[in-house]
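Input record, target 12 of the design panel.
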């Protein structure tokens, strides 16, 4: 016995079991001969589950701690000792440890070599490197339950302050437990690492990912415009997880069940939101065929999500089926009360549903990446229509076309617009591109470069919904823009609201100082128009003059203006 070689049994018991460090004794091949109580307690294992097994069965390489058993033993043979960080797999979790392995002095020359493995827990250490081990799961490199809670609680505070939705996806892997049991922990660990990477590549930049242990992941969808968008993102994760995984030269297939809860309707705090999503997940797992699907906590949302999926499917085909069309809303000169321009607005005429509202399909198109080809079609069609009106004898009018944030970040944007100008024959000075403040704020330098490129093409630039974003005056003064479009939220309460009067006057003054044209959006009453007529505003648009109209009706409206 080991204790007879190094002293009395009592001394062995005192030193070996009562030290604060985890200790193992292994032979020269890494087989565990003895393990102290601290090691067994930390890993929640019994002595018989450890002794006689190879150390390599418990060493789990991760993205942050890549050491492997083979690397350790190679170092021991060459340097006679090894020191570093390891993740040791226990019954329920991974424990990050700082490990030192040294050979034990043999009492006589013929004794076999033994190694002393001593380790300290670094999950609660205080230095920066070790703190990351406490907050991030060492296998998946995702935030653990503690850090995810902190991040989500912060997002919930922001959601309450700025009134946006947050979706929570509680993801449980199907078939993982069987694979983990049949092929061993190493195959299971590799699968979990691959799943985490797929989730990361599928998530949006603002989303918060986490790993709760076992086969459960969580994703917080921060600031989704509509609660049902959580279904689209959940479906994206399901598709990614359903693709085959290659582990140890074998292909494995996983599925997933996803429970969905939404802030604020399903809960306003961390515990309620997570519990709601977990409840939805378990209710899905209890179904006869639960694999690879999702379920909302609220039953009516499940109905909405099925409609959403049908819309997604139809939207993918809508461009080829020529179901899109453009409506145009007049922009009216405030002094002359004549039409000075038109804003092109995209509409989808669904074969069964009729006209689908833009706020129902534009966010879906953006989520699916379809907004790039659809937006290109919209710009081509607007420019062709403008040129066709000129051929009809209608005076040339400025045509405004909206760009989404996704289109604005398209690396080939300038090339596409240049090609459209050449193809349609439109005078580029008659084309105005509308972007939002948020498109600029995500990367000012890159945005300025794109805007300068647009100016080089000869087109005009307008900032849409001005006053609702986060652009500073310092940013605005460096932007090569021509027009500010005053957001309708400031117009709605005019002339009654003195606060909105002050804001409108301030923005109009800013526009004049910077030599920018200012257009007021959302004019719906005579009183609103009369207030603007007493200001420095240049033009307006809204239902008071005209709703958005199809191209044929706009042509009639423009021809009637000629006769005035």
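The sequence produced for target 12 reads:
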């Amino acid at each position: 016995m080991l204790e007879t070689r190094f002293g009395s049994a009592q001394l062995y018991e005192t030193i070996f079991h009562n030290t604060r460090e985890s200790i193992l004794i292994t032979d020269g091949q890494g087989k565990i001969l003895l393990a102290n109580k601290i090691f067994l307690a930390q890993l929640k294992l019994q002595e018989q589950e450890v002794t006689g097994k190879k150390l390599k069965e418990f060493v789990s390489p991760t993205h942050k701690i890549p050491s492997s058993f083979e690397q350790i033993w190679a170092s021991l043979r060459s340097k006679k000792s090894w020191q570093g960080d390891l993740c040791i797999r226990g019954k329920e979790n991974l424990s990050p440890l700082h490990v030192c392995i040294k050979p034990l002095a043999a009492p006589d020359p013929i004794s076999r070599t033994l190694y002393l493995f001593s380790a300290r827990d670094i999950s609660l250490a205080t230095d920066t490197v070790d703190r990351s081990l406490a907050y991030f799961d060492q296998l998946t490199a995702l935030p653990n339950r503690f850090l995810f809670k902190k991040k989500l609680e912060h997002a919930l505070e922001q959601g309450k302050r700025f009134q946006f939705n947050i979706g929570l996806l509680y993801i449980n892997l199907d078939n993982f437990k069987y694979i983990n049991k049949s092929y061993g922990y190493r195959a299971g660990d590799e699968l979990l690492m691959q799943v985490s990477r797929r989730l990361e590549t599928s998530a949006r930049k603002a989303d918060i990912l986490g790993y709760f242990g076992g086969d459960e992941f969580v994703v917080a969808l921060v600031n989704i415009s509509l609660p049902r968008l959580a279904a689209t993102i959940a479906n994206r994760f399901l598709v990614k997880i359903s693709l085959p995984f290659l582990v140890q030269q074998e292909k494995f297939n996983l599925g997933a069940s996803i429970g969905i809860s939404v802030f604020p309707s399903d809960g306003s705090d961390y515990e309620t939101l997570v519990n709601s999503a977990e409840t939805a997940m378990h209710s899905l797992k209890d179904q006869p065929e639960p694999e690879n699907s999702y379920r909302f906590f609220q039953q009516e949302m499940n109905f909405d999500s099925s409609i959403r999926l049908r819309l997604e499917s139809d939207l993918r085909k809508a461009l080829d089926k020529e179901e899109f069309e453009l409506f145009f809303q007049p922009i009216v000169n405030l002094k002359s009360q004549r039409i000075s321009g038109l804003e092109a607005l995209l509409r989808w005429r669904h074969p069964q549903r009729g006209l689908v509202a833009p706020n129902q399909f534009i966010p879906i198109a953006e989520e699916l990446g379809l907004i790039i080809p659809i937006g290109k079609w919209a710009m081509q069609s607007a420019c062709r229509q403008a040129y066709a009106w000129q051929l009809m004898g209608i005076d040339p009018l400025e045509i405004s076309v909206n760009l989404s944030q996704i289109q604005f970040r398209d690396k080939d944007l300038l090339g596409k617009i240049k090609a459209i100008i050449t193809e349609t024959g439109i005078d580029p000075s008659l084309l105005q591109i509308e972007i939002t403040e948020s498109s600029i704020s995500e990367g000012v330098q890159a945005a300025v470069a794109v805007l300068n490129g647009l100016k080089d093409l000869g087109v005009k630039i307008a900032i849409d919904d001005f006053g609702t974003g986060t652009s500073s005056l310092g940013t605005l003064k460096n932007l090569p823009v021509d027009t500010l479009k005053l957001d309708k939220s400031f117009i709605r309460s005019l002339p009654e609201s003195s606060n909105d009067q002050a804001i409108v006057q301030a923005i109009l003054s800013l526009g004049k100082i910077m030599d920018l044209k200012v257009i007021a959006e959302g004019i719906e009453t005579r009183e609103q128009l009369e207030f603007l007529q007493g200001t420095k505003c240049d033009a307006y648009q809204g239902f008071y003059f005209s709703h958005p109209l199809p191209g044929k009706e706009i042509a009639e409206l423009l021809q009637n203006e000629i006769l005035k």
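The chain has three domains: 2-132, 145-310, 319-563.
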